[in-house]
Amino acid sequence: MTALGISLSLSFLWAFLVALFAVPSIIYIAHLKNMLDAPNLRTVHESLTPRLGGVAVFAGFMSALTIFGNLANGVQQLLAGCIVLFFVGLKDDLVSISVSKKFVGQLLATGVVMIMADIRITSFQGILGIQELPIGISYAITFIAIVGITNAINLIDGLDGLAGTIVLIIVSTLGYFFFRYGGERYGNYVYVSVCVIGGLIGFLRYNFHRATIFMGDTGSLVCGFIVSVLTIQFIEMRQPFPDAAPSVAAGILFVPLFDTLRIFIVRMMAGRSPFSPDKNHVHHRILAMGFQQISTVMLLALLNILVILFVINFAYLGNTLLIVYLVAFSVALSVFLGVYQSRSARQRVAS
User: Fold this and answer.
1) Where are the extended beta strands (E) located within the chain?
2) Of 215, 241, 267, which one is at a domain's C-terminal end?
């Protein structure tokens, strides 16, 4: 095994073991101090459950990356942003904070990586005929991408093991490409990926149905932020998809992006705020079809993997065609979910 392989293996093992051994202590303290999430109309769990699993993921990720990883090329600023969002999420899990305060935290974390590390989307790579972006547009698009992806991961955290499994698939895919094609500029981001993977696997040991702990905003905000930065760096790397990196990235993030865009459109069409909570997420619709929590998570994981394989194998089509196919598939899937929902509602009324 090469020196890089040994270092990556140690990174994974450290993050995994820290998270694995931290979770039981967090569960014990949460029950002792009554820091538990109560079931309500928006949730599917049926008992009081701690929401602080993200603390274990963050502890494993942060300690492993600072010990074994290379913090150059923006990774140090990524860690700084993660610390900001960790405390924002922690406060929300403990006492609940407003959407505006969470947004301020995301604004600070995004500013750190954009301004201090110059991590941003610099080109549309041919989408709509647009190549290089003016610097002001570049910052605006990057801000929207980071905040959007961060909240997309946060919004899918609605079933036991769902957010962790989807993030695991996304980060593993991006990590593979950083390992193979990252070179000197992007290669150290494979350490970020491996440390996240280790922390998540240690946490998921306790998070699958029936979960004894949830990820909470502490974990979903940090994981979403990491995914957003990895995605931007993947797009900027442009390898091995020089003509289709943005559309391939969209395919890799398909499930969280599809769920977020769909739920926002559904809420606005109903005359409600896109941020108003409900049970119209894609995982809620699949549960309504009669699937159990575990099978729903596996189905969404399989869907994300299939879309990833599609965009990778058809990347030669270029950005425009791939995006057209992804949008068409999203519309078809959304129509299917809507038709099934309407049929189920009619059946309930009839009965």
Assistant:
1) 36-37, 49-50
2) 241
The position carrying tokens 């270029």 is 318
- Residue that is written with structure tokens 């399989």 in the block: 302
Question: Which residue range(s) make up the domain with 37?
Answer: 1-241
Q: What is the mean pLDDT of each run of 10 residues along the chain (351 residues)?
A: 91 98 94 78 69 95 96 96 96 89 95 96 89 95 97 91 96 97 94 98 92 92 98 96 95 97 88 80 89 94 98 95 96 86 55 53
Give the count of domains, the chain: 2
Supply the angle between the helices 162-181 and 216-237 in degrees, to the nearest 10: 30
In total, the chain counts a number of residues equal to 351
CA neighbor of 195 nearest in space, from 75, 83, 60: 60
Burial letters for 270-302: b for 16+ Cβ neighbours within 10 Å, e otherwise?
Answer: eeeeeeeeeebbbbbbbbeeebebeebbeebbe
State the DSSP H helix or E strand holding residue 347, giving kind and residue range, or none if neither. helix 319-350
